[in-house]
Amino acid sequence: MASAPTSKYNSHSLENESIKRGTFFILIDKEVIYICPFNGPIKGRVYITNYRLYLRSLETPIFAFLNEEKFNVDGWTVYNPVEEYRRQGLPNHHWRITFINKCYELCDTYPALLVVPYRASDDDLRRVATFRSRNRIPVLSWIHPENKTVIVRCSQPLVGMSGKRNKDDEKYLDVIRETNRQISKLTIYDARPNVNAVANKATGGGYESDDAYHNAELFFLDIHNIHVMRESLKKVKDIVYPNVEESHWLSSLESTHWLEHIKASIF
C-alpha cells in the first residue's frame, strides 16, 4: 500500500470528531493507494481510529462492496460435519463421533464434532486434554477409504523442562496405534524444526520423547513458524513490486528463502 504525506490535523478538529461520534477518535487519516487484486490501484483515505481501521475509496468501490452475486443456499448449511464423516465411512467399529466439544468447552479452536478412537471414553479425552497445548487432543482428520489408515492432528504435549509425562496421553496414542492394526509403530510428524521444539520446553511445551512413547517414532519436518514465513513472503513482495531487477533476480529470490519454505511445506 503506497501512501501520500500524512494529512495535518489539529486538536480542534479531533475534538469536534470526538464530539460528533461520542468516544470515536480518528488517530490517523492519510491518503493512500491500495493495490486491489481485483481492480488494481485504488486511491482512497485510510482511517485508523480507537475503534477500527478502514479504507474509504475516493474512486472505484472495493470489490467486497461491488460483488452482488446471490446464492440460493444458506451458507451455514453448506457444510454438515456428520454428512462429511459418513462420506468417509465414519463412524465405524474403530472410530466414533463425540459431542464432547459441542459447546467448545473442551477446546475452543476445534470443531464441535470430533472423531476419536471407539475405545476412548469422553473422560479419557478430558484427561488427555490437560496435557496438550490449548487442549488440542489427537483427533481424526482423514481416513484412507480402503486400508483405513488415518491421519490424526493434535498440538504439542506439555512436557516442559522437567520432562513431565502423562499416562493417559501415552495410553491414548497407543490406542490410536492399535486402531490402525496394520502398523507396529505410530509415526508422529512434528511440523517444527527440532531446535524450536526443544526451545518450546522452556515455555511448558515440548515433544513426544522415545522414553515416554515406546511404540512411536518422531520426525521433525523443519517448517518454520508463521512469523518467519510472513517475513519471507514480505521479502518476496519487495523484490517483485514495484520493480523487478532482472540482473539480480535469482540471488534476490534466494535471499528470501521462500522456495525453501515451500519445499519444506510440501515434503
UniProtKB/TrEMBL annotation:
A GO BP annotation: negative regulation of autophagosome assembly
UniProt topology in membrane: Peripheral membrane protein
Compartment(s) where it occurs, according to its Swiss-Prot or TrEMBL record: Cell projection; Cytoplasm; Membrane
UniProt-listed InterPro entries: GRAM, Myotubularin, Myotubularin-like_Pase_dom, PH-like_dom_sf, Prot-tyrosine_phosphatase-like
Domain Myotubularin phosphatase positions: 75-267
Binding residue positions for substrate: N225, I226
Main location: other
Keywords: Cell projection, Cytoplasm, Hydrolase, Membrane, Protein phosphatase
Gene Ontology CC, one term: membrane
An MF annotation (GO) of this entry: phosphoprotein phosphatase activity
One Pfam family here: GRAM
Family assignment from sequence similarity: Belongs to the protein-tyrosine phosphatase family. Non-receptor class myotubularin subfamily.
Protein's name according to its UniProt entry: Myotubularin 1
Organism of provenance: Canis lupus dingo
Classification lineage: Eukaryota, Metazoa, Chordata, Craniata, Vertebrata
